[in-house]
């Protein structure tokens, strides 16, 4: 007499699918770890970065901070213990201090790594220097509008930089404020982050194109074919930022539902702007003759893979987008181990070369590796 298999056993096809996925997940992590270790060995060597500045060399500045944010995701996805140790060592070396400008979103980015570290061995003291900065911002909010005007003294003196008046800021600062609210139970941080997030979105988001202008200087700017200029990495900052913001909001809350809808709306546009080779062009509406560009591509690959894994994006439609992006990213790895084709620090689409690398490009790649391992 034949016995029926227990109903609790998964179908053979499911078991086979899981077995087939395991090597791909490990390969994504292994690729990310190899790049992370390559970069860790060169954190004090900026000779490979074409436009290195004092900011590039700042271990609390945004350029390096994005690398450490990627490291936290890689550690979460199952990387070896040396990845976690490097994050904890970095925070301790920085005395857990954010960068120096209390209102500037870029200087809050490193706090995302500190907040992660506080839950993974560093203890609650790791968030205290950032909490003091955030409390100062809450007690003395900036009172400027979001119009981006560069004074004669230079870009960094633009008054609106005390708020989130450029789209990159939506990756840099809101996840830190929202995680601070979760860890402290103080809802003021969440309220501030969401108020400023929606102010920036209302100002910079173009609903006709489902994309963000980098800042208000680009509202009227057009290319030679009279197309609007939407910077790939700029919108990559946003879509990746949304993927980091959404899990920090209460499921079913009005803000979470609105941001999820925004994420899906942007993802639809990003899907159709991907080039056949898997990359996204530096200017999203101008794909012709565009070079590979790995930083925007990495942010989109991360966000779309995350969206599929979370059930926000339909797998059949979007998983191929993420996989094409990941394939392109692996081709961006150069023979010496670096991540190439990273557009340098800028605020608009520019040319990029095979050997161009940067800390934030590596960080975006690590985010993508972690998301692809879960996909």
UniProtKB/TrEMBL annotation:
The keyword Membrane does not apply. Gene3D superfamilies: 1.50.10.10. The keyword Cytoplasm does not apply. Keywords: Hydrolase, Signal. Residues 1-16 form the signal peptide. GO terms for molecular function: hydrolase activity. InterPro entries: 6-hairpin_glycosidase_sf, 6hp_glycosidase-like_sf, Glyco_hydro_88, PolySaccharide_Degr_Enz. GO terms for biological process: carbohydrate metabolic process. It holds the Pfam family Glyco_hydro_88. This is Glycosyl hydrolase family 88.
